[in-house]
Specification:
- This protein is of the alpha+beta class.
- Helix content is about 60%, strand content about 10%.
- A five-stranded mixed β-sheet has the order 3-4-2-1-5, with helices on both faces.
- The radius of gyration is 27 Å and the shape is elongated.
- The N and C termini lie far apart (about 80 Å).
């Protein structure tokens, strides 16, 4: 037996003899191991249920090889199932080596099923794809103020999270985390053509400022990919909700008209960005092509900006009524009283 097998045997015997009431499961997860160690299932982590069980965790080096026996609480396993943990594979590609009870094994398998259902939900996976892209943007923002190793570090995680965004949009995940992303992406159906060359270019680049620029371009590429019309997978549409949203936001459209007419560019701009944020949200929720209100803002053409805002308002009203939503509006107070 090799050392991994010996350690696995030791763990299973130790748990059976001394931790039977303290550890629910011992689990193997081999996808991140070296190729030479992937063949035989070996212990990776365990699920403790008492403080004694938690103290079983240990890290050490055996014959030059680092070994980490770590505990994961049931509560954190729930997060893996709901795709809120980084390493999805830790649950998805795992194998139970020991179960305290059949109920513990069943609970674990049910978490795997729940995770698989979440992975097959295109609406949920698109939300995770957008979260991954947002993470890449935040890392890039920090890169702008970094130098040396921190630039390379940030660039690597920009690659990681943009790749995750693409994988999630395909309702897939990386079995081997960062290690084989391009190879795994090559087997997915929808991947932007220039992503792999851009990914490799970042790794090969020595100059920090060029690498930052490449990361920006890669983020932009993935953002455009996720915003293409065929990628939009809206949640269930309730156009009455959209109508009620419009009734509230119609006052913001009125503000923009009034401030543009008065020539107050600052107030027109600030209310414009508030409306743009709202438009971004509902356009995503309802699968509506993005309404680029602020793209048309020009301090020297406020009347034209107000006119463009009005055109978007009319487009939104049309979308609502054609979708079956009712805009509750009244010509006068008496008409309001008659309805309520």
């Amino acid at each position: 037996m090799n050392n991994k097998e010996l350690i696995t045997k030791w763990v299973l015997e130790k748990v059976e003899e001394e931790y039977k009431d303290d550890i629910a499961l011992v689990v193997s997860h081999n996808t991140l191991r070296l190729e030479s160690e992937k063949g035989t299932p070996s212990v990776s982590y365990f699920i403790p249920i008492t403080d004694k069980g938690r103290r079983f965790a240990r890290t050490f080096i055996l014959d030059g090889v680092g070994i980490d026996l770590w505990g994961i609480e049931w509560e954190r396993m729930e997060q893996f199932a709901d795709l809120n943990e980084y390493n999805i594979s830790c649950l998805a590609d795992s194998q139970v080596l020991y179960a305290r009870t059949p109920e513990d094994r069943e609970r674990f398998e049910n978490l795997k099923k729940r995770q698989a259902e979440n992975l097959s939900n295109p609406v949920l996976m698109r939300a995770h794809a957008l979260q991954a892209l947002e993470q890449a943007k935040q890392i890039y923002l920090n890169m702008l103020f970094s130098k040396g190793s921190d630039v390379k570090l940030g660039a690597g995680y920009v690659l990681d999270y943009t790749a995750q965004a693409i994988a999630f949009s395909n309702c897939r995940y990386f079995k081997e985390a960062q290690a084989e992303q391009l190879e795994e992406l090559s087997r997915m159906e929808h991947v932007p053509e220039q992503f792999a060359p851009g990914y490799l270019a970042v790794i090969r680049e020595k100059e920090e400022e060029i690498q930052k620029k490449q990361c920006y371009e890669l983020i932009h590429l993935v953002q455009d990919f996720l915003e293409r019309p065929e990628a939009l997978q809206p949640q269930e549409k309730n156009f009455q909700d959209l109508a009620d949203w419009y009734c509230e936001l119609s006052y913001t459209w009125l503000r923009i008209r009034c401030y543009c007419k008065a020539g107050n560019s600052t107030k027109a701009y600030m209310w414009g960005i508030m409306l743009q944020e709202e438009l971004n949200r509902v356009c995503y929720d309802f699968g509506i092509p993005k309404m680029e209100l602020m793209k048309e803002f020009d301090i020297s053409r406020l009347e034209e900006f107000a006119g463009y805002a009005d055109s978007l308002e009319q487009e939104m009203r049309k979308i609502i009524t054609e979708g079956g939503g009712k805009i509750r509006e009244y010509r006068n107070y008496e008409e309001f009283l008659n309805e309520v």
